[in-house]
């Protein structure tokens, strides 16, 4: 899993709202998104993971 408790607590550099919204749009169309709002590949909550600059899509689908 690429996501850890420090990011859930709000630690780490955040991306702009524009980038976050682009990431979320990709996630919402992704087959790996579960009904609970988590990525099936990494088990991360996408609403949180998309906020942080040091996070990447495990499927390689985010534009940035």
Describe the structure.
By secondary structure, this protein is an all-alpha fold. The chain has one domain. Helix content is 33%, strand content 0%. It contains three helices and no strands. The relative contact order is 0.28.
Write the layout of secondary structure elements.
Elements (H helix, E strand, L loop, with lengths): L4 H4 L8 H13 L16 H4 L15
Please supply descriptive tags for the structure shown above.
64 residues; single chain; 33% helix; mainly alpha
The whole-number mean of residue pLDDT values reads: 87
Terminal CA distance reads 19 Å
Q: State the helicity in percent bands.
A: 25-40%
Structural class: mainly alpha
Number of domains: 1
Number of strands: 0
Nutshell version of this structure?
This protein is mainly alpha-helical and 64 residues long. The protein has helices spanning 5-8, 17-29, 46-49.
């Amino acid at each position: 899993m690429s996501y850890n408790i420090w990011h859930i607590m709000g630690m780490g550099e955040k991306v702009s709202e524009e980038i976050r919204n682009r990431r979320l749009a990709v996630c919402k169309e992704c087959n790996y998104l579960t009904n609970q709002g988590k990525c099936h590949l990494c088990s991360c909550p996408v609403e949180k993971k998309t906020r942080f600059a040091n996070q990447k899509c495990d499927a390689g689908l985010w534009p940035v």
